[in-house]
Amino acid sequence: MKVPYRAGKAISITCLLALLFLAVPRGRAGSAPSTSPATIDRQVHHELVMLPWYNLFDNLQYRVNGDEVILSGQVVSEHGQTKYDAENAVKRIHGVTKVVNDIEVLPPSPFDSQIRRAEYRAIFSRADLGRYTLGAIPQVHIIVKGGHVTLEGVVMDQMDKTIAGIAANTVPNVFSVTNNLRIE
User: Is residue 59 part of a domain?
Assistant: First the structure.
């Protein structure tokens, strides 16, 4: 199909304007993206919660020290994949020059796995605590290592923290429960 000369000229001018618009840099000339510790902190948090295998039985923590990020916590995963995924995700953040990966990979244990499931049922089956399971990553994390349970994360008030601790202590075969929940 032959396009009339005038329509073809209008299309060419439109294409030229679109190309010029896309070629013009955005923002101030010579400005680089901000890499303040606060910006790095937000980006690290985002990258960690987006990890595909990160769940309520993992506890990822981090500290930003200038352009260095120190990762810590515990993860339950085959071959420690979440540990290395976390490190690789943080390394890609603009402004991060060094990543120290102190994340502990918890050893596989059928005994601990059984306790994790029982703790989940004991804590989140309660109507007043069920809301903490909402979202991609729950606000309360259950860490089990050698029969010892640690609760990590954030709850809304002291009552929820106390109830979670009491519920965690009702699970049989648990050696100890440490309640590290913080109040939002």
Answer: yes
Q: Tell me, what CATH number does 41's domain have? A: 3.30.300.130
Domain that holds residue 152: 110-183
Which tens digits make up the pLDDT trace of 113-138? 999 999 999 999 998 898 988 877 78
- pLDDT tens-digit series, residues 52-67: 888 899 999 999 998 9
Farthest-apart Cα atoms in the chain, separation: 84
Q: Are 120 and 131 in contact (CB under 8 A)?
A: no
DSSP state of 28: S
Number of domains in the chain: 2
SS3 content of the chain, % helix, strand, coil (to 5): 40, 20, 35
Residues 65-102: pLDDT tens digits? 989 999 999 999 765 689 999 999 999 999 999 999 99
Residue 162 — φ and ψ, nearest 5°? -65, -45
- Are 114 and 179 within one domain? yes
